[in-house]
Amino acid sequence: MKTWTVVGYSFDADIYCDGVCIIRALGEIGPVVYERAKLITDVTMRFKGAATVEEALKVIAERRGIDPDNERSYDSGDFPKVIFADEEFPDYCPRCALCRGVLDGFDPEDYGDASGSDE
Ligand SMILES: [Zn+2]
Q1: What is the 3-state secondary structure (H, E, C) of 42-102?
Q2: How far, in Å, from the CA of 54 to the mean position of ligand 1?
Q3: Chain segment 75-87, per-residue pLDDT in tens
Q4: Which residues of 79-111 are buried (b: 16+ CB within 10 A; e: fewer)?
Q5: How many CA within 13 A on the CB side of residue 34?
Q6: 16: Cβ–Cβ under 8 A, 6 or more apart, which residues?
Q7: Rounded to the nearest whole angstrom, what is the distance from the C-alpha of residue 118 to the centroid of ligand 1?
Q8: Model confidence, pTM
């Protein structure tokens, strides 16, 4: 996996996967939409036809007056910051706070976490 691949987001002291969870965490979609959002487009179409979560986040950032290309200009408590594939998590296996999915490229077994990735 390329190191600049975005595998998730950190927001408000939690970690989220690169799926629709981060949009939900931002309060941009309600639980019903979130539950039925099997395809990313179901959600992102709401944001100027954005095709990906990243694009949808850019639209949301714009609305909130945040410059997503300059992460130093805002706090991760206000808007998500990206987690790249080469980010290190020495103490725990990074899982999404909403769906509990393990971020791409991380293996729970490396952390002695026998519960697997389906929880
Ligand atoms: Zn998730």
Answers
A1: HHHCCCCCCCCHHHHHHHHHHHCCCCCCCHHHCCCCCCCEEEECCCCCCCCCCECCCCCCE
A2: 14
A3: 999 999 999 999 9
A4: bbebbebebeeeeebbbbbbeebbbeebebeee
A5: 15
A6: 8, 9, 10, 22, 25, 80, 96, 97, 98
A7: 12
A8: 0.84
| For residues 98-112, average pLDDT | 92
SS3 label, residue 118: coil
CA of residue 76 to ligand 1 center, whole Å: 17
Cα(100) to ligand 1 centroid in Å equals 6
Q: Which residue has the tokens 């080469």?
A: 86
Q: How many whole angstroms from 13 Cα to the centroid of ligand 1?
A: 15
Q: What is the pLDDT of residues 16-55, one digit of tens each?
A: 998 889 999 999 888 877 777 655 656 666 777 777 888 8
